[in-house]
UniProtKB/TrEMBL annotation:
InterPro entries: 6-blade_b-propeller_TolB-like, AB_hydrolase_fold, Peptidase_S9_cat. It comes from Plantactinospora sonchi. Residues 307-327 are annotated as: Disordered. Keywords: Hydrolase. SUPFAM superfamilies: alpha/beta-Hydrolases, DPP6 N-terminal domain-like. This is Prolyl oligopeptidase family serine peptidase.
Length: 633
């Protein structure tokens, strides 16, 4: 039997973005490697019959980044993006089923961002930035390239491709706004168009507006502003006419649970259709009738139909359901899901279940023994119901404890651990379980899966009750004889990195910590991170909130750096714009100043996630070596 290696983890391939043909007979999906070698991620579009033997075939033989597969309304043509002609510049391609030919449809110089085949078979809506002008080209040649913030910022604009002629036109609509998403009414009527004031992640998500665009007349109807971070547009018919829905953050706080918003177009009445639910919508999926809603529900997932009286549960599934796609009638679906011991694959079935697996993209993991994974349910210090996961060392049971325990905190904080296979390149439970560690994966308040209020409770209070929630879970595992109190470690990436840095400034109970792309100063992150306004909502203030001390100082790990005695491993991408590298530098300099044992690793060319194969291997090996050094000397 082969043991688990770092190479087995990072050299895998995973299916992404399945797209079920409207008639339900064919399915396509993108197959993507877990890691990247070189400058480009080479992905592939695959096709499979849903009612045959399930054997898959590639749509092309190109070496390219292929993405965003979309079917024509008659299920006879597949459209997708590919950069085979010029790497890094995706163009729209057409795969015709009748003769299995691939045709390039665009040569837009800035590339195509997204596309939507319309019910009219001769037209496709495109999203693309403006092509460079002669003046732009001259400025580039002369290196007259000073950037004036707010001027000539790139924006995605809606364009229309006429397939018979190949001509692309740009309707003069939506002023100078950045187009985020398009969705056509199922009967071939107008397009719902979601726009923002700019593509800037800090500013744009709070400036969303909704429009109706009639492709036959070129006219626009304004529907007004939408809640922050709106996405996942869907149409459906009702007794009072057409409705248009979307997912967005629940007002008024920026860090909050998502909700399904329902706009009745005849009356212009807008309703939150998921108020008070103890779970969180993650996807809203259009059909010809009532839309489907995917809910994060604790450690698991609920699939529901949005009926006039509210969401009606259709089925419940362990772990996660992602990238759901359906037939036009919504009676058949495809989705990405897995199990505790199998990574996600494409599954098919009716909305009421069961679902059958039709891809097997990680056969190399067959026969690999993983640690036993089990759900945990416990109560916080104030009585709030919480959950999480425990992964035991490979080949061990709880009675074999106590074990060295590493707690890995999830990111977000609006994310969650679901009861799925916990095997990834970043600090992951099964990778540590293979080395003899028990791993605790907590879902403290502030995360996804228990409703709006659970998520909103950490706004301005990061590191407070959520930290208490995590400690309560650790104490429970110590009491049950699973965790060795003298061999505790903590780790996390992004918000999890913040919690790891926060933890070692609050207590000396941990023997080692890993801070991956972590938040060290909330004020600095609000000022320099790409999601500044959201970070300000979490930290509670900004540096320009008057003369300090500020509320964010009290919840920033840097304020407690003088208390840190725990050895810390700091990992960060050099090009991270979400949590900029300066956060890690700040922690490194403070630990150096106070003489704290630590190691600081910077990964060139990497952003908030680590993508290059050798870097992923380094993260995995360095993570285990660090905890081995301090927890298993």
């Amino acid at each position: 039997m082969t043991g688990l290696t770092a190479e087995l983890v990072v050299d895998g391939r995973a299916p992404q973005t399945p797209a079920l043909a409207p008639n339900g007979h064919l399915l396509c999906y993108v197959l993507a490697p877990t890691s990247r070698i070189g400058d480009h991620l080479d992905t592939e579009v695959w096709l499979t019959d849903t009612d045959g033997d399930g054997e898959a075939r590639r749509a092309t033989t190109d070496t390219a980044t292929e993405s965003r597969p979309r079917w024509s309304a008659d299920s006879g043509t597949l459209f997708f993006l590919s950069d085979r002609a010029e790497r890094g510049i995706p163009q729209l391609h057409r795969f015709t089923l009748a003769d299995a030919t691939v045709t390039v449809l665009t040569g837009w110089r800035t590339g195509i961002i997204d596309h939507l085949p319309l019910v009219d078979p001769g037209r496709i809506a495109l999203l693309a930035e403006d092509e460079p002008t002669e003046q732009d080209a001259r400025r580039a040649r002369d290196r007259d390239d000073a950037v004036v913030v707010g001027e000539r910022e790139p924006r995605a604009r809606m364009r229309l491709l006429d397939l018979p002629t190949g001509r692309i036109t740009t309707p003069d609509v939506f002023d100078d706004r950045h187009v985020v998403e398009l969705r056509q009414r199922p009967d071939g009527g107008p397009l719902a168009v979601l726009t923002q004031a700019s593509a800037d992640n800090d500013h744009g998500p709070r400036t969303g507006r909704l429009h109706l665009f009639d492709p036959s007349t070129g006219t626009v109807e304004e529907l007004g502003p939408v809640a922050a971070d709106a996405h996942s547009l869907a149409w459906w018919p009702a007794e009072d006419g057409w409705h248009l829905g979307y997912l967005a953050l629940t007002p008024p706080v920026l860090h909050a649970g998502t909700a399904v918003f329902d706009l009745a177009l005849a009356s212009r009445v807008l309703r939150n259709r998921t108020t008070g639910l103890p779970m969180c919508p993650t996807e809203l999926v259009q059909t010809d009738t009532a839309p489907l809603v995917v809910f994060a529900d604790g450690l698991n997932t609920t699939l529901a139909r949005l009926d006039p009286t509210g969401p009606t549960t259709l089925s419940q599934h362990p772990g996660r359901l992602d990238n759901l796609t359906t037939t036009r009638g919504g009676d058949h679906l495809a989705v990405l899901t897995g199990s505790r011991c199998q990574p996600a694959n494409v599954h098919l079935g009716p909305p009421t279940g069961p679902l059958r697996r039709i891809t097997d993209t990680r056969p190399e993991l067959d026969g690999i023994t993983l640690g036993t994974q089990q759900p945990l349910a416990y109560r916080a210090a104030d009585g709030l119901e919480l959950d999480g996961l425990l992964v035991l060392p490979v080949g061990q049971t709880a009675s074999d404890g106590p074990f060295p325990l590493v707690t890995i905190v999830h990111g977000g904080p609006y994310d969650r651990y679901a009861d799925r296979c916990q095997l990834f390149w970043f600090p992951s439970a099964q990778w540590l379980a293979t080395a003899g560690y028990a791993v605790f994966l907590p879902n403290p308040r502030g995360g996804q899966g228990r409703g709006h209020q659970f998520a909103a409770s950490v706004a301005g209070r990061v590191g407070q009750e959520e930290w208490s929630d995590i400690q309560t879970g650790i104490d429970l595992l110590i009491t049950e004889g699973i965790a060795d109190p003298d061999r505790l470690g903590i780790a996390g990436w992004s918000h999890g990195g913040f919690m790891s840095a926060w933890a070692v400034g609050q207590t000396e109970r941990f023997r080692a910590a890993l801070v991956g792309a972590g938040v060290i100063d909330w004020g600095m992150l609000a000022a320099t991170g790409e999601n500044g306004q959201f970070e300000a909502a979490l930290g509670g203030s900004t540096g320009w909130s008057g003369i300090g001390p500020h509320p964010h100082d009290a919840v920033s790990p840097i304020s407690f750096a003088s208390r840190i005695r725990t050895p810390v491993l700091i990992l960060h991408g050099a090009e991270d714009t979400n949590v900029p590298l300066g956060q890690a530098v700040y922690l490194h300099r403070s630990l150096r100043h106070f003489g704290v044992e630590h190691e600081f690793v910077i990964y060139p060319r990497e952003g908030h996630s680590i993508r290059e194969r050798n870097h992923q291997l380094d993260v995995m090996r360095r993570t285990r070596a660090w905890f081995d050094r301090w927890l298993r000397p």
